[in-house]
Design a protein that fits this description.
The chain has 11 helices and no strands. It has one domain (3-231). The longest helix is centred in the middle third of the chain and has 19 residues, at 110-128. The chain is mainly α.
């Protein structure tokens, strides 16, 4: 992995760090507020949210088509690239998180994503004669850098910087939010930053200890849905 990749990972992990709890609470609150006003595609409505989260993204999403899904997955992976012994965005199922969010809490951002992805494709084809997913990692990084700095042409709404910032924020949420929302698969993000997740109780020894808390996160609804599916 290049120094550039390591620097990006360090930035995202550092931005979360001890704030993993706050990140989880923020996403949970957003979903709670829109629980009764979700806009779902026909496929998204076929199964409970916990089951859809457990299934993961299988090519056709609740919102994304195959092309857009592949682009978002590649973009998120460059923001949070895999490293030896460290999960990347694909490992944490970040794409599935964003896909489900856009049929629920973030349904008002569907047009934002459609336009942003179309503009991203236009910029990449104009600059490299290839869509984003066909570019080399180095070229993808150059594109992402141009968006971050607001130097990418073809962007009107959303602006290049707004699109970059939103995708980065949603990638962080997909890495570190509670797995019930479709990302953070197998607690990949929480393990990365040493966050133990929700606990039902803390012993007196836990409260008195000055050492890092190491008990595993409690089994979430995502894991329960998997177990129920296998046992059916």
């Amino acid at each position: 992995m290049s120094e550039h990749d390591e620097g990006r990972r360090a930035f995202i992990v550092g931005a979360v760090g001890a704030g993993a709890v706050a990140s989880t609470a923020l996403v949970q609150t957003a979903y709670a507020k829109t629980q009764n006003a979700k806009v779902q595609s026909p496929k998204a409505a076929e199964a409970p949210a916990s089951n859809r989260a457990a299934e993961g993204f299988d090519g056709h999403g609740a919102f994304f088509n195959d092309e857009h899904g592949a682009t978002v997955a590649a973009f998120a992976e460059r923001l949070m690239p895999v490293a030896p012994g460290k999960p990347g965005a694909r490992d944490a199922n970040v794409l599935n998180y964003i896909d489900l969010a856009l049929t629920g809490a973030y349904a008002d951002q569907q047009d934002f994503y459609r336009r942003g992805l179309a503009q991203l494709d236009s910029y990449c084809r104009k600059t490299y004669n290839q869509p984003f997913v066909k570019l080399s990692p180095a070229q993808q990084d150059e594109v992402i850098g141009a968006l971050e700095q607001g130097k990418a042409s073809e962007f009107v709404f959303p602006s290049a910087q707004a699109f970059f910032n939103t995708l980065r924020t949603h990638t962080m949420e997909g890495m570190f939010a509670d797995p019930i929302y479709g990302g953070n698969k197998d607690f990949a993000g929480w393990k990365l930053v040493g966050f133990p997740g929700t606990q039902l109780y803390y012993t007196q020894a836990d409260l008195a200890s000055k050492l890092p808390f190491t008990r595993a996160p409690i089994t979430g609804l995502q894991a329960q849905a998997k177990a129920n599916t296998k046992g059916a």
